[in-house]
Amino acid sequence: MEIRKLRVDDYPELVRLWTRAGLPFKPKGRDNPEAIAKQMEENPDFFIGAFENGKLIGAVIASSDSRKGWINRLAVDPDYRRRGVARTLIAEAEKVLRQRGLKIFCALIEESNVASRELFKKCGYVEHRDILYFSKRDSDDV
Ligand SMILES: CC(C)(COP(=O)(O)OP(=O)(O)OC[C@H]1O[C@@H](n2cnc3c(N)ncnc32)[C@H](O)[C@@H]1OP(=O)(O)O)[C@@H](O)C(=O)NCCC(=O)NCCS
């Protein structure tokens, strides 16, 4: 398995991976090609892909709000699961965030997503059951 930064020309493969992994995305909002290209330009090291024989089999997008590092959009192709791909991607995302001086790493996970909850626990993350997520959106597409 090869781990490398994703580039703009990986976008079609990224969308294919998200679709195969069943990860919803916002093609008219923050996940559209222009938005992703802009995010990649601003933080090229935050877009991380796992490849096998040149094929994208897993990906993660790190982000920073300057206070905490976030692990976003983690996805592994169903044919390559339970081989440690996600664990490797989380470790790589933490590495790039540490390089930015961040010491707290977080993820938002749907309660029903048992695989992801177990994964993050295995990676040393503590589940907080006393926090509710609030958001405000300018539209459903963003
Ligand atoms: C969640 C997901 C990323 C895990 O990817 P993966 O590469 O299979 O995970 P790993 O092989 O690195 O798993 C590491 C550990 O996580 C836990 N884990 C992973 N998948 C699990 C599952 N389906 N059920 C229970 N535990 C699971 C296990 O403890 C596993 O260690 P083990 O295989 O030695 O038992 C993958 O199932 C996926 O892409 N799901 C759909 C998208 C998604 O939900 N993304 C997360 C959004 S927050």
Structure description:
A five-stranded mixed sheet has the order 1-2-3-4-5. The chain has 142 residues and is of the alpha+beta class. The chain has one domain: Aminopeptidase. The radius of gyration is 15 Å and the shape is globular. It is 32% helix and 21% strand. The protein has helices spanning 11-21, 33-42, 85-99, 114-122, and strands at residues 2-5, 47-52, 55-64, 69-76, 105-106. The model has no long low-confidence stretch (mean pLDDT 96). It has four helices and five strands; from the N terminus they run βααβββαβα. A hairpin with a 2-residue loop joins strand 2 and strand 3. The structure holds coenzyme A. Coenzyme A (COA) is lined by residues 21-23, 74-76, 81-87, 107, 109, 113-116, 118-119, 122. Coenzyme A (COA) binds next to strand 4, helix 3 and helix 4.
CATH superfamily: Gcn5-related N-acetyltransferase (GNAT)
Average pLDDT metric: 96
User: Structural class of the helix and strand makeup?
Assistant: alpha+beta
N to C succession of SSEs:
EHHEEEHEH
Parts with pLDDT < 50 across at least 5 consecutive residues? none
CATH fold-level label:
Aminopeptidase
Largest sheet: 5 strands, mixed
The largest sheet has its strands arranged as 1-2-3-4-5
CATH class: Alpha Beta
Number of helical segments? Answer: 4
